[in-house]
Amino acid sequence: MFFSVIVSFLLFLAFNKEKSRYAVFAGIFGGLALSIRVDALLFLLIFFLSYLVYLIWIKTKFKDIFSLKKKTLFGLFSFSCAITLFLTWPSLWKNPLLFFHAISYFLHHSWTGNVLYFGEIYTGNNLPWHYALAYLLITTPILTFLFFSFGLF
Questions:
Q1: Which pLDDT score is estimated for 63?
Q2: What pTM was computed for the model?
Q3: Under DSSP, is residue 19 helix (H, G, I), strand (E, B) or coil?
Q4: pLDDT, averaged across the chain
Q5: Can you tell me the distance from the alpha carbon of 107 to that of 110, in angstroms, rounded to the nearest whole number?
Q6: Is the Cβ–Cβ distance between 28 and 80 less than 8 Å?
Q7: Is 5 helix (H, G, I), strand (E, B) or coil?
């Protein structure tokens, strides 16, 4: 989570200030985040979708959204992220395609354990719809909710 927050901050700086060094540093931290947890890919997807919405919201011209400079920054980010991921995940040294096998494995793997939730036992793939929200509220520190509330205004 820490590396993902750093990545999003550096990517925001890279694309707003159009500085390549921020994109390279974001790629390094992105590679570290991916080598720790593969689901950091979701965080990158969330960043780029929200940044696209931000650009549309401030009425950026279409040609500026996909300009050569922004494509170059994205390429630098992707390249440095891939290199860092490769260097920090020793299993990839013998089989670079293992990363895609890991993603495929996690997408098709479910947890069949049991969860005790509000006094009842549920299977891992049959949780109530409000489980994720309750889990988020229970496990997030109050200080984080306070800062989140300040950030809304």
A1: 67
A2: 0.67
A3: coil
A4: 84
A5: 8
A6: yes
A7: helix
